[in-house]
Amino acid sequence: MPLNSDTPLILAIETSCDDTAAAVLYNGKMLANIVATQKIHEQYGGVIPELASRAHQQNILPVVDSALKQAGKTMKDVSAIAYTQGPGLIGSLLVGCQFAKGLSAALNIPTIGVNHLKAHIGAHYLNEVPPQFPFLCLLVSGGHTQIVKVTNHLEMEIIGSTIDDAAGEAFDKAAKMIGLPYPGGPLIDQLANKGNPMAYKFPIAKVDGYNFSFSGLKTSILYFLQKHKAEDPQFIEKNLNDICASIRFTIVKTLMQTLERAAMDLNIKEIGIAGGVSANTLLRDELMTTGIKNKWSTYIPPFEYCTDNAGMIGILAHYQYLIADFASLNDMPYPRGL
Ligand code: KG4
Ligand code: ZN
After folding, report:
1. Is 243 within 8 Å of 178 (Cβ atoms)?
2. Measured CA angle at 270 (ends 265, 274), to 5 deg
3. Residue 2: what pLDDT?
4. What is the tens place of the pLDDT at every residue in 285-310?
5. Where are the alpha helices (DSSP H) in the chain?
6. Among 153, 267, 275, 294, which is most buried by a count of CB atoms within 10 Å?
């Protein structure tokens, strides 16, 4: 297949979960980044995979169209089409993958299958000052919690991960227990800003290595709420901000203490966070203060590249393009793995 440029124009598509997103990058610089969030799942308190796939089918063409328009480009200008290959919901992934392959066959240009988790970390490459290699990245999303050692743009090694729930999942499940709508992570964050993080004490799990566990926290929040609601049915309403602040404090402390230990053991001072939970205000503040204490250089991707987006898929695809790491027509999406 002919390559039409050393400075590629990449059309990137992200459909791993419940956001339909498209971005256009020229030579690694963002020209357009569009995200259509699917509101339909809110009423169910979580993502319904079948509804997500159907919504992706409806959204994908208008989203790709708006991204190209915003970038001032047409399909003919595109050098390669990147899509999220996994991990994610299989039905959702299939929509983006098949759309990319159909379009690439029509345009006779290559496709690039991008790993969603690597792309979350790759969002750092969009920073004006990106981290220097090797750097450590705490990747915290709705489905994953990992500490990853990044040795070059594309080479990443997981050195720790959750043994049960992800940090975003812990936020969302806690939010559901206190009656907040899905996704509850951002809401807990907002309410926590008005509360006292020391009001209630929740346990921090001790796990081997640089791994995490959040299932014990979930159970302890459940028992805590049951006990207090039995004494006062209005307990949650009266103490909402303090409950949120205490939960947020526990999750962020769990993450930061393991990240700090890993950084010290590996003697790495270039430290970043990525993924949806890196939008959390306390986590961002704690990264800064822990960084100052340890003389780290700290990195947080621009806000719009923290939660799911196609810009991060596009920047990783840019580096894959440069080494001609193209997908074949037979490559299928994979639901799991880095
Ligand atoms: O990376 P992401 O957009 O999607 C996945 O790949 O999972 O992450 C979504 C997760 C959700 O669990 C959401 O509640 C959480 O990120 N999240 C937050 C915040 N913003 C998003 N959690 C805590 N505080 C936030 N400000
Ligand atoms: Zn994600």
Report:
1. yes
2. 100
3. 43
4. 999 999 999 999 999 998 899 989 99
5. 49-71, 90-107, 116-122, 167-177, 185-192, 215-231, 235-266, 281-294, 311-322
6. 275
Is there a single domain that holds both residue 145 and residue 282?
Answer: yes
Residue 237 to residues 220, 225, 232, Cα–Cα distance (Å): 19, 11, 10
Kindly report the protein residue whose alpha carbon is nearest to atom 16 of ligand 1.
276
Asked if the model's pLDDT at residue 22 lies above 60, the reply is yes
Pocket of ligand 1 contains residue 279 by CB under 6 Å: yes
Number of domains within the chain: 2
113's CB contacts (< 8 A; 6+ apart) are 82, 83, 84, 85, 97, 327, 331, 333
Give the domain range for residue 42: 9-121+306-322
Residue 227 falls within a domain, yes or no?
yes
Ligand at shortest distance from the CA of 142: 1
Q: How far apart are CA 5 and CA 79, in angstroms?
A: 7
- Interhelix angle 49-71/90-107, rounded to 10 degrees, is 40
Contact 250, 204 (CB under 8 A): yes
Residues 223 and 284 grouped into a single domain: yes
Q: Report the CATH number that the domain containing residue 229 is assigned in CATH.
A: 3.30.420.40
**Any residues with CB less than 8 A from the CB of 293 and at least 6 apart, and which?**
none
pLDDT digits (tens, 9 = 90+) for 269-283: 999 999 999 999 999
Among 37, 171, 278, 281, name the best residue to mutate to test ligand 1's pocket (greatest count of ligand atoms within 8 A of Cβ).
171
**For ligand 1, is residue 110 a contact (CB within 6 Å)?**
no
Q: Which residue's alpha carbon is nearest to atom 8 within ligand 1?
A: 276
Separation of alpha carbons 16 and 95, rounded Å: 9
Rounded to the nearest angstrom, the distance between the alpha carbon of 313 and the centre of ligand 1 is 17
Instruction: State whether the beta carbon of 18 lies less than 6 angstroms from ligand 1.
Output: no
Q: Which residues surround ligand 2, an ion (CB under 5 A)?
A: 141, 308
